[in-house]
Design a protein that fits this description.
- A hairpin with a 4-residue loop joins strand 30 and strand 31.
- The protein has a 5-stranded mixed β-barrel with strand order 3-4-5-7-6.
- By secondary structure, it is of the alpha+beta class.
- It is built from 18 helices and 35 strands.
């Protein structure tokens, strides 16, 4: 009998309807590769599939989320929900805590949240007003209702509400900043010294069955134009815990300094120093370097990095630990910090203060003359910082301008540090990490908390020295735990997605550049592009596009390496005062090196997967709050400059219009497409351009433009501009476009503009 012939799978390009149906039936797991495999799309047909998917994206029938394609309005498989109420049957109803209607359309209105919890799952039951991490379950054809299973309650409903006080003469009303909160009433005795129109924080006294709930002012924040007020708006809108429970404060106050060695190595005679921003209050890392005396390592160096021993003070499962885990990280505003740890620890016992004995976790690293690390070891030590220096002080001393403090340190401490840095830079250059270093804004405030000016600080070699020392210490931490087979949280950074690489190639082709198609993608290939455009008019433009092509770094117990740093293994170890992930790595190191009984527990190791997701979400939350605060402060600053003209650069191009960043301040605002002229402007995604159909005038990402400020909306953090001067002609000439009088309201800033964080 002849063997049964295998049925050859039909090779064809699927229809639009088939693709949409496949995406709907495979939520959260569909990308171009999966679609091609499902329909056996091969060869030249892949070009047709790519074109079809782009058309569906342009028409809003699908949307891209990383490497996946989703139906518009569909939530990620795991997301944060705000539990807003209950159905008539008593089931909890949730809605996405973070949702951009401008990007994704109206948010899903009703999500029924399962209150069942996994067997043995700790924590409180969810209730109305909570924020929860939940796994979304798609509906079916017969029952399209989305449901969600609670993974974890992130925070109980806030005991305090932020809002603007309006005095009625017979008491006051509070208009909450959070639109989900209802208006509150305050009796005259509960207002304190707060004034009409000020931002206040209140405590809800009771919520009666009839009428509005009553509240009492517990904190007078003050003028809505102050930095503290703007920061508090971001804190509340993102649900960032900003007040420590009394029990946590009490536990921190009971902590006492470490005075005895108790098995620690004594490094107090080694002149470790801290180099930090001039206004830093906590100092969690100290450094030291010297030539290696080993005759087998001629011209090599020994580098020591000591990190505050937070694990000694914050033990697993303690009240301080649980609060730190909930916060995830410290959040930094222009003149205000929401710390991860109480001040008794962050600014005192865990801070490596000058001239004071402090316990620390330290790594001793040996490098050869080419900057290659030949060995390292971890130690639990007692140290005494020889000096507290700012970046500017240390750099000035090296540049030949020492002061009274740095003069005695120059020869014995600072010059060996810079010599070691020069050695390590040889290794870095050989490694070729992503060389993308976009400037960051810094807001300087007046005494009243309003904006004085905005600067872009110089990036000094002192910054780069500390950064490279910390990177090497982080590598050692990951290697040590991995070698000892101890679970830890890696800091991972994935390769750019194929969709983003395709978009980058399309863009580069518009400026006569190519990005090679290779199987083994490396950061050096991006660096080659950046170096080619350095010192040209396209330098800033290409840097922005390369930045947007990168993935976002995350925390996870599964290692995939760090693409941006071009490292096989990497883990955050150097900032346990302000990042919980680093504290977890400290505990893992203590266990791996047998440096004490307060190492990583089996219970902690078992939940690293969930913890990695939570800490990654907390980091994104902090970044969003910090960015929104800066945007709001700048909008407040520019309110009095409506009508003024500025120079800037186009930093975002969408179908709705242009986003422009101003040269002086870095402030970005929106130019609606309706104000560009009387003709129709066509959006070309691959060229990042808007092109006039009649005049062929082109506005492209990276172009320099002059604009007039038309509107500043401080509490939305929004600016609206109108264009002055010229656009680029599609051919070789330029055309001047007269802005129209009508304008649409700005829909929001360009998404994804951020500095790559290691």
């Amino acid at each position: 009998m002849a063997p049964k012939q295998k049925t050859k799978k039909e090779n064809r390009l699927p229809s639009r309807e088939e693709v949409l149906k496949f995406i709907a039936e495979n939520p959260g797991a569909t990308g171009k590769r999966e679609i091609a495999r499902a329909f056996n799309v091969t060869g030249d047909q892949r070009i047709g599939l790519k074109k079809l998917l782009r058309e569906l994206d342009d028409e809003g029938l699908v949307e891209r989320r990383g490497r996946r394609l989703e139906r518009p309005g569909v939530l990620p498989s795991v997301t944060v929900l705000y539990l807003s109420g209950r159905t008539d049957d008593g089931e909890l109803v949730g809605e996405p805590a973070e949702w951009n209607e401008d990007e994704h359309g109206p948010a899903p209105k009703v999500i029924v949240v399962s209150e069942r919890k996994g067997r043995g799952r700790p924590g409180p039951a969810p209730g109305v007003g909570d924020r929860v991490l939940a796994r979304i379950r798609e509906g079916t054809d017969t029952d399209p209702q989305q449901t969600a299973k609670v993974i974890k309650v992130i925070a109980k409903k806030p005991a305090r509400v932020l809002g603007v006080l309006h005095d009625t003469g017979r008491g006051a009303q509070l208009a909450p900043i959070d639109k989900k909160q209802k208006e509150l009433v305050l009796d005259p005795d509960d207002i304190g010294d707060a004034q009409d129109g000020e931002l206040v924080e209140v405590e809800v006294k009771r919520a009666g069955r009839y009428g509005p709930a009553k509240a009492k002012v517990v904190q007078r924040i003050g003028s809505m134009s102050s930095e503290r007020a703007v920061s508090m708006i971001a804190i509340h809108s993102h649900g960032i815990p900003h007040e420590f429970p009394k029990a946590v404060i009490k536990a921190a106050e009971k902590a006492t300094p470490v005075t005895a060695l108790d098995g620690r190595e004594d490094w107090r005679d080694i002149p470790l120093i801290t180099i930090d921003p001039a206004d830093a209050k906590d100092h969690d890392d100290a450094v030291h370097a010297e030539p290696d005396t080993d005759p087998n390592n001629k011209d090599g160096v020994v580098v020591r990095v000591a990190i505050a021993d937070v694990a000694h003070y914050v033990t697993a499962g303690s009240q301080i630990d649980l609060e730190a885990e909930k916060r995830g990280n410290s959040v930094y505003f222009p003149d205000f910090v929401v710390p991860m740890l109480p001040e008794r620890l962050s600014n005192d016992l865990c801070s490596l203060r000058e001239g004071e004995d402090r316990p620390a976790m330290a790594v001793r690293m040996v490098f050869d003359k080419s900057g290659r690390k030949s060995g390292h070891s971890f130690h639990r030590i007692m140290m005494r910082s020889a000096a507290k220096l700012s970046y500017q002080e240390a750099q000035a001393a090296i540049d030949g301008r020492p002061n009274e403090k740095t003069e005695p340190l120059l020869e014995p401490v600072l010059k060996p540090l810079w010599a070691a840095y020069g050695c390590l830079m040889k290794g870095r250059d050989a490694r070729e990490p992503l060389d993308l270093d976009l400037p960051e804004r810094k807001i300087l405030l007046k005494p009243d908390g309003t904006v004085d000016r905005i600067i872009t600080p110089d990036r000094l070699d002192a910054h780069k020295l500390i950064e490279e020392f910390m990177i090497q210490a982080n590598v050692c931490a990951a290697e040590t735990c991995e070698k000892a087979d101890i679970d830890l949280l890696y800091r991972i950074h994935d390769n750019p997605s194929q969709e983003k690489l395709a978009a980058l190639r399309d863009f580069l082709s518009t400026i006569d550049m190519k990005f090679p198609k290779v199987g083994n993608l490396r950061p050096s290939q991006f660096n080659g592009i950046l170096h080619k455009v350095a010192d040209t008019e396209n330098a800033h433009l290409v840097s922005e596009v390369v930045l947007r092509s990168q993935a976002q770094a995350e925390y996870a117990p599964q290692n995939i390496g760090h693409f941006g740093l071009n490292l096989r293994r990497y883990a955050h170890f150097t900032s346990p005062i302000r990042r919980y992930a680093d504290l977890i790595v400290h505990r893992a190191l203590i266990r791996a090196c047998r440096l004490g009984k307060d190492g990583l527990t089996d219970e902690e190791a078992a939940k690293l997967d969930v913890l990695g997701g939570e800490l990654s979400a907390a980091e994104r939350r902090a970044m969003a709050a910090e960015r929104e605060t800066i945007d709001r402060l700048i909008a407040l600053w520019l309110v009095d400059h409506v009508g003024a003209e500025f120079s800037g650069r186009i930093v975002g191009v969408t179908r709705a219009g242009l986003f422009v960043a101003l040269d002086d301040s870095g402030a970005d605002g929106f130019i609606p497409i309706s104000t560009l002229g009387q003709e129709y402007f066509r959006y070309e995604e691959s060229a990042r351009s808007l092109i006039g159909d009649r005049s062929k005038t082109r506005y492209r990402l990276g172009d320099r433009v002059d604009v007039r400020l038309v509107e500043a909306a401080p509490f939305a953090g929004a600016l609206r501009f109108e264009l002055l001067g010229e656009g680029r002609y599609q051919g070789s000439k330029s055309r001047t476009k007269k802005p129209a009088a009508s304008a649409r309201k700005r829909t929001g800033p360009p998404k994804g503009r951020r500095k790559v964080r290691a």
